[in-house]
Amino acid sequence: MTTDAVPATATGTLTHRRLPRYAPAVTLALSAAVGAGLSAAVGFSVPAFVVGALLAYMATITIAAGVVEGRRKAVDRLVTSLVYAAFGIALVPLTSVVWSVLANGLPRFGAEFLTTSLRNVTGLHDQQAAEGLAPYIGGAYHAVLGTFLITALATLISVPVGLLASIYLVEYGRGRLARAITFFVDVMTGIPSIVAGLFAAALFGVLFGVGTRNGFAGAVALSVLMIPVVVRSSEEMLRIVPNELREAAYALGIPKWRAVVRVVLPTAISGIASGITLAIARVVGETAPLIVTAGFTSSINNNPFADWMMSLPAYVYSQAMRPLSGSTPEPSLDRAWAAALTLVIIVMALNLVARLVARLFAPKNSR
Quick one: 63 and 178 in the same domain? Predict the structure, then answer.
């Protein structure tokens, strides 16, 4: 029995016709130099430098790979460069927003900002603060409190409705009714947020009188936006539960509702909980519905069922667009940036909580 020797040409193709590992780094450095030169020729700017360096790198690495490694590897390197470039472009707006919020919001952000409201703060106070004659006063405590109360009420409305609707669609729904519910959930997912706000404002206007504004109306508006997200996320989580678990429960003779409660929901609770948390993060920053339903106020309101209630999105809008009369806009803009930073921190915390919940409630695989 003999073994055919591998041709030397094939061995050389596999081991020698490759660019060195340092080739991408060297090519990137040379491309950066080329991009800097091209940008300087037309008037240096960061966008021109990045575009020039990127095009030079893609052209150089593709040609070098085509000469040394062959056509297939050259196409692979070109597509890889495009993917990394797209990833970098996608990061630009994210980093820009985060940097802008941090740079403009941190100077005003602090304990005083989070523990005081705008009650009795006038344009004269802001004018004196802008001239350095008095310290900055006025915070967003009333807006933070309003955001938490409104979002909590919206969650209490949306989670039971959305979860029960998803259970019906997955476990019980058949025929025209299930298809109709699915269709309307898809429609609600794409409606503009201002439409939800107008719906809630019209509903409370019919029930309690035109011009009714309170935190509960804002919660109803947010629930219109939150319910379809909860339905969709919970439905997907329930559908991935293996049917074998349901069949095993039925084989034990337990009714279907108990199988859903004791088997299906515990199995999918990780994804359901994280989906609900992300749905909360989705609506906590909505501005238009809260402007037309909860309104504006500079005072602390602990009762979401009476009187106007401020929220962080509405606070940012009012401070940026409607500075206190008789003052320069800088103090109000500083408060708007600090409130925007607070909102970003809340959304980031909710996303982290969603990841933590998904990890804590994930089914444990044990033998």
Answer: no
Is residue 255 assigned to a domain? yes
| Position 6 confidence tier, pLDDT thresholds 50, 70, 90 | very low
SS3 string of the chain? CCCCCCCHHHHHHHHCCCCCCCHHHHHHHHHHHHHHHHHHHCCCCHHHHHHHHHHHHHHHHHHHHHHHCCHHHHHHHHHHHHHHHHHHHHHHHHHHHHHHHHHHHCCCCCHHHHHCCCCCCCHHHHHHHHCCCCCCCCCCHHHHHHHHHHHHHHHHHHHHHHHHHHHHHHHHCCCHHHHHHHHHHHHHHCCCHHHHHHHHHHHHHHHHCCCCCCHHHHHHHHHHHHHHHHHHHHHHHHHCCCHHHHHHHHHCCCCHHHHHHHHHHHHHHHHHHHHHHHHHHHHCCCCHHHHHHCCCCCCCCCCCCCCCCCCHHHHHHHHHHCCCCCCCCHHHHHHHHHHHHHHHHHHHHHHHHHHHHHHHCCCCCCC
Which pLDDT band holds residue 253 (cuts at 50, 70, 90)? confident
Do 157 and 269 lie in a common domain?
A: yes
Q: Quick one: how far is CA 362 from the chain centroid?
A: 22
**Together in a domain, 207 and 343:** yes
Domain that holds residue 97: 8-105
Q: Could you give the C-alpha distances from 159 to 151, 214, 217, in angstroms and in order?
A: 12, 21, 17
Structural domain includes residue 60: yes
301 in the same domain as 182: yes
Residue among 330, 283, 14 at smallest CA distance from 153: 283
User: Looking at residues 280-287, what average pLDDT do you find?
Assistant: 88
Q: Name every residue whose Cβ is closer than 8 Å to that of residue 201 and which is 6 or more positions away in sequence.
A: 212, 217, 221, 292, 293
pLDDT in tens, 77-112: 889 888 988 898 888 888 888 999 999 999 889 888
